[in-house]
Amino acid sequence: MSIEETASKIKNMEIRGAGKIARCAVMALKEYALSIDAESTELYLKALREGCNELKNTRPTAISLSNALSYVMRRATGESIEEIRANLVKAVDDFVEASIAAIEQIATMGSHRIVDGDVILTHCNSTAAIRTIIKAHEEGKQISVYATETRPRYQGRITARTLAENGIPVTLIVDSAVRFFMQKVDIVIIGADTVASNGVVINKIGTSLVALAANEARVPVLVCAEGYKFSRETAMGRIVEIEERDPSEIVDVAEFEGLDVKIKNPVFDQTPPRYIDSIVTEMGVISPFAAYDIIKKFEER
């Protein structure tokens, strides 16, 4: 897909899931890099940066998108357009391959935290979290899952369908029923869109309430997150911008026309590290308070 088409699909949530967004974005940049007709390396790099920025601006909260594009752009170097293009293409291919491999590595480690007979609760539609649960099932563990609908976009319905198709018993619940069912849960397994340097996890709206209910019930919360979802910018003082989407995703705005009613639709929330048991990355299982170590390791790659 072109950069414009990819950006539109990411912005409109036709492409969703932090990992998939990152992979689609860098692949769109690769296609763009192969098509640019420039007279000099300066103009070629300028066009690349413009395309990169167009993609970055689609989803401000998901650091995976920014990190993936930055990873690729840092490697777009060379003395000629041909060399720059070749290096960028290799960087994209390397990133996509590593991103997919990371999910399997996370699943292998994360599944060790799941015990035979566990009842799991998950929120939203995290590829890494889902793969971790499926991996435990493949290992022969008898497990079952509560999956939240994850309103307003209902990504949890996708999760429920995926798990059921893999032979795992699933109970789909509304988001507000999390505390009601938490007493039946052994472990919460979720993904992340961004992990800040202080261990705060930014994930789909409702995640912090899930973690709070789990904390009250003394249920461990396991976060599955690839290394490129850790935010270097937060270590330098940047605050993660919480994206808000159109109110029409929640209600028919016309129903409130003429009334003093504000409608807010934040996409993500922040879960403090004290409510998280551990974070599983492809580089190992860490305490959320060790998030900065992952940032440093990823930067060294």
TrEMBL record:
This is Ribose 1,5-bisphosphate isomerase. Substrate binds at residues 16-19, 59, 203-204, 229. It comes from Candidatus Syntropharchaeum caldarium. HAMAP family: R15P_isomerase. NCBIfam families: eIF-2B_rel, ribulose_e2b2. Reaction proceeds via a cis-phosphoenolate intermediate. Pfam families: IF-2B (PF01008). It comes from the Archaea. It catalyses: alpha-D-ribose 1,5-bisphosphate = D-ribulose 1,5-bisphosphate. PANTHER family: METHYLTHIORIBOSE-1-PHOSPHATE ISOMERASE, RIBOSE 1,5-BISPHOSPHATE ISOMERASE. Catalyzes the isomerization of ribose 1,5-bisphosphate (R15P) to ribulose 1,5-bisphosphate (RuBP), the CO(2) acceptor and substrate for RubisCO. Functions in an archaeal AMP degradation pathway, together with AMP phosphorylase and RubisCO. GO terms for molecular function: ribose 1,5-bisphosphate isomerase activity; S-methyl-5-thioribose-1-phosphate isomerase activity; translation initiation factor activity. Keywords: Carbohydrate metabolism, Initiation factor, Isomerase, Protein biosynthesis. Its EC number is 5.3.1.29. The active site is at 124 (proton acceptor), 193 (proton donor). Belongs to the eIF-2B alpha/beta/delta subunits family. R15P isomerase subfamily. GO terms for biological process: L-methionine salvage from methylthioadenosine; pentose catabolic process.
